[in-house]
Amino acid sequence: MEEFSVNNDDNNMSRSRSRMNAPRPQNSPSIIKWVIGILIAVVAVTVFLGYRYFNSAMQPMNPNSNQQIEVNVPIGAAPRQVGSILQDKKVVKSGSVFNYYAKSHNLNNFQAGYYVLKPSMTLNQVATRLQKGGAAQPILVNGPKILIREGEMIDQISDSIDKGGHFKKGEFKDLMKDQSFISSLAKKYPDLLGSAMKAKDVRYRLEGYLFPAVYPIQKDSSLKDLVTQMVGKEDAILKPYYSKLKSNNLTVQEALSIASLVEMEGSKEQDRAKIAGVFLNRIDKGETLGSDVSTRYAVKKSATQLLSQSDLKSTSPYNTRVNPGFPPGPVDNPGEGSVMAIVNADRGDGNMFFFAVTKKVPGSKYNVGDVLFYKDINSFNEAVSKYNPEGK
């Protein structure tokens, strides 16, 4: 009996130790909720960051950049490959997002060739440009070239040509007055130059028709070859829009005249269509356009020179402060963005006035450079006094 009692105590102690060493039961539902909460948070953060990245990638790489980048699209390149090339060249933020945008907007029929693109271009502008076909040879990296910047006048282009050392300034200006050469261009590009040939009182008949781009100067190229290339590029850019302009009751000369004003009046793409709308609304109402851009062209003053009272009263047909309707012709050579602003002019609000903010007013939501639009003169004058006092 005694031996049995000792063994029994040992068994009891062993069971007691087993209970002490056993793991404590956990609160399983709390752990599951905690894990699910973390997963939901991770998914939410991932979706949020993905949304921000997508929205950012839909915007231009650098809206304020004037850098020109040469891009080569190989023959047979798939849209995804083109997107990767554009991303590597820093033309777009994301090749994948560009590929998605191009496919979703049916803009993925890209043509092989060499292109000059800008980081400031929208995805639509890049995709549209790539559908039109590029140059057969490199544009920027090999050989001499001439750069025409958006908004340059023929007088400024002549200076660039002279500095290039291949052609003389005087030769170029003489060619801009050569009616026989211009008539030959009109026969070659009738849709482009038909209305320009009918215009009266123009300073240069080809003003506005030399498309801003980089042009290689090939061996044995003549000045006529170079200008023909510029005009041919303008025709290629405008070709998709001829029917739209006609349906809007606009000649090419009228459209480019307004586009040349828009080029210098609006630096932001979202403003340009509304600025074009204001100009077209004013023409419909029989009002003067009142653009200092055209007045400067009329009196041959640059954007940095002040306009005098006599300048503002100039009787030149280009002075839209005193002459209603369209100016005789373009006052510079606008880029595709300004041409598109005319094609897609925003006239819906019936705006008749606009100006750019030059003074930051404390508490105001407007920043310097913002363009404000108004329907009536009183609201316009009140806003000018507040945000652009020197423009009163």
* Beta strand %: 5-15%
The total count of helices amounts to 17
Structural class: mainly alpha
Record the strand order, biggest sheet: 1-2
So what's the overall shape? globular
Low-confidence spans: 1-22
State the helical fraction: 40-55%
Order of helices and strands: HHEHHEHEHHHHEHHHHHHHEEH
Number of strands: 6
- The whole-number mean of residue pLDDT values reads 85
User: Distance N terminus to C terminus?
Assistant: 119 Å
Computed over alpha carbons, the radius of gyration is 32 Å
Description of the structure:
This is Endolytic murein transglycosylase. It catalyses: a peptidoglycan chain = a peptidoglycan chain with N-acetyl-1,6-anhydromuramyl-[peptide] at the reducing end + a peptidoglycan chain with N-acetylglucosamine at the non-reducing end. Belongs to the transglycosylase MltG family. Keywords: Cell membrane, Cell wall biogenesis/degradation, Lyase, Membrane, Transmembrane, Transmembrane helix. The structure is a single chain. By secondary structure, the protein is mainly alpha-helical. Among the domains are: 69-130, 2-Layer Sandwich (Dna Ligase, domain 1), CATH 3.30.1490.480; 145-240, no CATH class; 352-392, no CATH class. Helix content is 51%, strand content 6%. The protein is built from 17 helices and six strands. Helix 3 crosses helix 4. The longest helix is centred in the N-terminal third of the chain and has 30 residues, at 28-57. Mean pLDDT is 85; it is low at 1-22.
